[in-house]
Amino acid sequence: MDNTVVVSTPPHVKSPRTTKGIMLDVIIALLPATIAGIVFFGWQAAVLIITAVLSAVAAEFVYYFIYNGGFKNKCSNAGEVCLNWWKQFDYTSIVTGLILALIIPSTANWYEVLIGAVLAIILVKMLFGGTGKNLVNPAATGRVIMFLSFSLTTYIATTFEPISLDSQLFTGATHLSGYLLGGNAGARMEWIDLFLGTGLAGCIGETCKLALIIGYLYLVIRKVIKWWQPLLYVVLSAFLSVCMAATAEGAAFDITLFVDYALSGGLMFGAIFMATDYVTSPKGVYGQIVYYVLLAVLTSLLRFYTKIEVVSFVIMIVNLIVPLIDTYIVRRPFGYVKAKKTQKEGK
């Protein structure tokens, strides 16, 4: 009798949840922000969203087709390769393309989005082995590549002074500076406008916080993410930003700025849809706490000193530290029960 024990790749717990099902939930959660972005920024936003999604899916298909020998023997097995690709298609490329489109301004060129989506899929996902093997978040990396390669609109994060509602609107970063490009410090931006995204410059999917919260609640109800994860990142980052703003010369501690920091930039979007990525975040609870605290600290620090939006950069950087977190903060083994201390004799 063969006594060989075969240990398969974890996890070993059977569940009706599949990667495809989880990705479908994420797509549904992104729909409110997608619709709001198209309503606010018009057909330009719709074109970029469609371009990003189609480019990401096409890049995955082409890589899979070539890697699995679709062109060999005069494409004799091309049909089989296409069928196998469709069977394993898990919507992750759709999610990557959609997220990438939602975290860029609608003023971006279609070819810039195409390049960003293709590189995000090829370089970050497929070259590392496909779904579940990437070291960093593909959409965040695609955004960083686009930021470094093209003239995407950025914004100055000096202080959260009032912004002028009659200033010319630009679709750069979402009110991280408190000033619209070319604007001045006029009547303070109302929190309701920050929350709804009305009259607010920003990236396609970041402006309407109501839409993001709807998506967040859906993911929590569906148990795709844990409720405390995005909250820890957003709340701690906003609080640290308020504290750092108070260190500026002549500044005072103003807790009312907490809401401005929390509702500005790509912080809320990144916290809900990018930082919570299963593949690039720690597996244990304690490791996750360390992970979100690091995200919050780095986000507040880099926002304060660089004066630009840094959420995508920070997520990508901390993703690279996740293997170390999982190595040194060991999870409790599945089924582990802490042994009870035995009472000393005679007591």
Supply the key terms.
347 residues; mainly alpha; 13 helices
Structure description:
It is a single chain. By secondary structure, the chain is an all-alpha fold. The longest helix has 25 residues. It is globular, with a radius of gyration of 22 Å. Among the domains are: 131 residues, no CATH class; 104 residues, no CATH class.
Shape: globular
Q: Which structural class do the helices and strands define? A: mainly alpha
Detail the poorly predicted runs.
Answer: 154-174, 177-188
SSE order: HHHHHHHHHHHHH
Mean pLDDT: 82
Alpha carbon gap, first and last residue: 51 Å
- Estimated radius of gyration: 22 Å
Counting H and I runs of at least 4 residues, what is the number of helices?
Answer: 13
The count of DSSP E runs of length 2 or more, i.e. the number of strands, is 0
Largest sheet: none
Give a short overview.
This protein is mainly α.
Write the layout of secondary structure elements.
Elements: H1 19-41, H2 43-67, H3 78-88, H4 92-102, H5 110-125, H6 138-149, H7 191-196, H8 209-221, H9 228-245, H10 257-263, H11 267-273, H12 285-306, H13 311-328
Helix pairs in contact: 1-2, 1-4, 1-8, 2-4, 2-5, 4-5, 4-6, 5-6, 6-13, 8-11, 9-10, 9-11, 9-12, 12-13
